[in-house]
Write a structure and sequence with these properties.
- There is one protein chain.
- The chain contains eleven helices and ten strands.
- By secondary structure, it is an alpha/beta fold.
- The protein has a six-stranded mixed β-sheet, with helices on both faces.
- A hairpin with a 2-residue loop joins strand 1 and strand 2.
Length: about 260
C-alpha cells in the first residue's frame, strides 16, 4: 500500500488516507488501495473502524482533478462507478465506521465522510461540494447522501452554490456529530470507537443493518427488517451474557435493599 495506512489497537482499526502532498486527494490508486484494505479487515477481531487523513491540513481534499480533467464521458462514468462502489462498501461495511475529519473535506472528501456512520471533525474542518464550479456534478454519492443527511433544501443550496462551510456550520446543519480542537480530534474519536467496540458486536452490527436498510423502505417494511434483526440477536452468547449480567446485578441490588429483620 502506497497511499493507505492501516493500524489496529485492540478491537479498533484505523485507516489513514496518506497522500499528504496532494492533500490526500482521491485518485484511482487510492480508491483501489482503500477497497483492498476494507477487504483485509479482520471482522472477527475489529469491531469499529476510524477513517482519517494524514497531516493536519486535509482529511480528503477531493477527487484528483488532474486525473479527471482528460476523461471522456465513458471514462468519467467509470470513474464515478469506481468511487461509488468503494464508498458503498464503506457505507454497508458490517461494523461501524467513524470519520475523523481533520481539515478539508471537499468533493470526494465530503462524500467519503458521508459514507461513514458518524462524522467528527476538527475546528479547522471545511466541507463542501464544489463540483459545479468545475463543470461537473458530485459523482461519488454527494447528490444522494447530502440530501439524506441535511435535507433537500440545504443540500441543493450547498451543491448549487458550490459554497464551502466551516466546522461550526457543518455541526449546525447536522452534517457532523461533534467538533473538537484539532489536537483532541483523534483521541475523542478513538474513545468513541473503543466505547462502541465494548458493546455486543452482533447487536451493534444488526443495529447498523437495521438503520441502513430501514431508511430505504417505508415504515411498514422497516419494522419487519427490525423485527428480524432483533430476533436474530437471541440465542447468541452476547444476548445470554448481557441479559444474564443485568439480571444478576438487579438481583444483587434488590437483596441490598431487603430490610434486616431481627428474630
Amino acid at each position: 500500500m502506497e497511499f493507505i495506512k492501516y493500524e489496529t489497537d485492540g478491537a479498533v482499526g484505523t485507516i489513514t488516507i496518506s497522500r499528504e502532498k496532494a492533500l490526500n486527494a482521491l485518485n484511482s490508486q487510492v480508491l483501489e488501495e482503500l477497497d483492498q484494505t476494507l477487504d483485509n479487515v479482520d471482522l472477527d477481531v475489529i469491531r469499529c473502524l476510524i477513517l482519517t487523513g494524514a497531516g493536519d491540513k486535509s482529511f480528503v481534499a477531493g477527487a484528483d482533478i488532474g486525473e479527471m480533467s482528460t476523461l471522456t464521458k465513458a471514462e468519467g462514468e467509470a470513474f464515478g462507478k469506481k468511487g461509488n462502489d468503494v464508498f458503498r462498501k464503506l457505507e454497508t461495511f458490517p461494523i461501524p465506521v467513524i470519520a475523523a475529519v481533520n481539515g478539508f473535506a471537499l468533493g470526494g472528501g465530503c462524500e467519503i465522510s458521508m459514507s461513514c456512520d458518524i462524522r467528527i471533525c476538527s475546528d479547522n474542518a471545511v466541507f463542501g461540494q464544489p463540483e459545479v464550479g468545475l463543470g461537473i456534478t458530485p459523482g461519488f454519492g454527494g447528490t444522494q447522501r447530502l440530501a439524506r443527511l441535511v435535507g433537500q433544501g440545504m443540500a441543493k443550496q450547498l451543491i448549487y452554490t458550490a459554497r464551502n462551510i466551516k466546522a461550526d456550520e457543518a455541526y449546525r446543519i447536522g452534517l457532523v456529530n461533534a467538533v473538537y480542537p484539532q489536537e483532541e480530534l483523534l483521541p475523542a474519536t478513538q474513545k468513541m470507537a473503543a466505547g462502541i467496540a465494548m458493546n455486543a458486536p452482533i447487536a451493534v452490527r444488526n443495529c447498523k443493518k437495521a438503520i441502513n436498510e430501514g431508511l430505504q423502505v417505508d415504515m411498514d417494511q422497516a419494522i419487519v427488517i427490525e423485527e428480524k434483526l432483533f430476533g436474530d440477536c437471541f440465542e447468541t452468547e452476547d444476548q445470554k451474557a448481557g441479559m444474564g449480567n443485568f439480571l444478576e446485578k438487579d438481583k444483587e441490588k434488590k437483596l441490598k435493599h431487603v430490610p434486616f429483620q431481627n428474630k
